[in-house]
Amino acid sequence: MLIDTHVHADGMSIDELKQMVDNGVTHAITCAYYPIVPQYPQTLIDLYHKLIEFDVVRAQDLGLKLYVAIGIHPRSIPEKGYDKAIDAMKSLSENDFVVAYGEVGLEKARTKELRVLEKQAELANEYDIPLIVHTPREKKLEITKKTLSLLNKSKISTNLVVIDHVTPETIPLVHDAGYGIGLTIQHGKLDVDTAANLIVNYEDDLIVLNSDSGFRKSDTTTVSKVLRELKENGANQSLIEKVAFKNAIRIFYKIR
Ligand code: ZN
Predict the structure, then answer these.
(1) CA 33–ligand 1 middle distance (angstroms)
(2) How far is the CA of 236 from the centre of ligand 1 (A)?
(3) What's this model's pTM, rounded to 2 decimal places?
(4) pLDDT tens per residue across span 42-85
(5) Cα 234 to middle of ligand 1, angstroms
(6) How many A from CA of 223 to the centre of ligand 1?
(7) CA angle at 124 for the pair 251 and 7, rounded to the nearest 5°
(8) Residues of 53-87 as b/e, b for ≥16 C-beta within 10 angstroms?
(9) Which domains does the chain have, with CATH numbers?
């Protein structure tokens, strides 16, 4: 079993999805993201349905068990009426394929982003749904600190949160806060060696791996590469199983 905890299947071709399967990925979570600022909340609501009703089936045909995270990304907050998208998240929470809210988070920490993240954290706590929290490329440390302080102030329990795109610079903060740690192995984020070193050094029950494949030029096989690297470096089997699937299954408890 191998779980890629953050992809964008709607930005991936059949060939790319197949390549993931051929490289041992058995399960993946596709995160909601709309690549422009939508004018209407309905755009996001249709996106959630598309992920659940179309991409899940497309992946299934290839032997990939795809699950869905629905949410409002800080770069995709509708001009007006984002609360309608939040209402749709509520009503889809019981869906068997919806295992998380995401990706959510802060990009520039504008007032509206803070409000939308706060709402989604409240919702996650109320519906007992894990939250996949994006951290941006720019001002990573500063925005991660703001994100953690917002989440700490909210009532969300730590075991429902994965802070994603964590780096060597931000991992101590996320680790100390007790949140899940998402390592994104992708060009411009973490390389295979750096990710493998972080896993060995932190040997944590909270680390989950992902490739963030889709939309941009991406390597769909990076999660398998990290596991291979760990094996070659003699990491013990129990550590490998934790980061390959055990931690993900504990956090995203609806995955079967
Ligand atoms: Zn993403």
Answers:
(1) 7
(2) 29
(3) 0.97
(4) 999 999 999 999 999 999 999 999 999 999 999 999 989 999 99
(5) 30
(6) 15
(7) 55
(8) eebbeebeeeebbbbbbbbbbbbbbbeeebeebbe
(9) 3-251 (3.20.20.140)
